[in-house]
Amino acid sequence: MKIELIIKGEYEEDIIKEIAQSLLSSFNAESRITVLDEDPPRDAYSVRRAQYNASRLLTWVLKYRLSVDSYMLGLLDYDAFVEGLNFVFGIANPFYKVALVFTYRLHSTDRGLYKERIKKEVFHEFGHLLGLRHCDNRRCVMSFSNSIFDTDYKSWRYCEKCIVALKQGGIDVNEDAITLKD
Ligand SMILES: [Zn+2]
Ligand SMILES: [Zn+2]
Known about the structure:
Elements: E1 2-8, H1 13-27, E2 30-35, E3 45-46, E4 51-53, H2 54-62, E5 71-76, E6 80-81, E7 90-93, E8 98-102, H3 111-129, H4 148-153, H5 160-168, H6 175-178
Parallel strand pairs: 1-2, 1-5, 4-6, 5-8
Antiparallel strand pairs: 3-4, 7-8
Residues 135, 137, 140, 142, 158-159, 161-162 line the site of one zinc ion.
């Protein structure tokens, strides 16, 4: 599996490294990191809401794809929405194999916590890319987060049911690393 990490925003080096490394070892993948200097098109921003339109950002990020068969995972330090929701932590489009995580609402003065939150949202959105739906196990990373409290409660790992679904979908997973044990 090939993963392209797309970065837009100021992130400390170790955060990017850890996210890349944990994705790679979890899915036996190879990755490339692309840092975007360019800004999104103006119509991706809603002045009225003072937020970005998540779907438009997703379309924008698609144009940076390097390889047709890779999965794209974007980290964007923006606040984003989809119609009908006040905000979203992320968005995934399995058809185009691209997912975005919006870190604006994940910030904390606790660096470790901030990193942990990003990791959870990355594994959540990546799970959607690999065909997983929301899970009712609240500790499973695929459980839906309504608020940052839900994010903090869940782990970054997949429950056994979700692992089975991944394997049935033909995904090469490093089970030992990513299965929720408790
Ligand atoms: Zn979700
Ligand atoms: Zn699950």
